[in-house]
Amino acid sequence: MAKLDGPLLSESAHGSIGKRLTYSRRSSGNQVRFQAANHDANSALQQTQRALFLVALGLWNSLTTEEQELWNVYNTG
Length: 77
Fold this sequence. Notes:
Blueprint: E1 2-5, E2 14-17, E3 21-26, E4 29-34, H1 44-62, H2 65-75
Antiparallel strand pairs: 1-2, 2-3, 3-4
């Protein structure tokens, strides 16, 4: 939804167009910010990758500090 005051792409524009483009006035000058969309893929492949990452993270967090340090020593270039 457009909530913009003033002509689009002008110095007097203030507000936002949807959740993507925001015009604002700052003490340093006028700003235009573009908010990129975060993609939250729900495909089967993405869900599998997330599940595997969570398993790996759980295994890492189950290690003691000494085991983590030993892992880091042997697996850093």
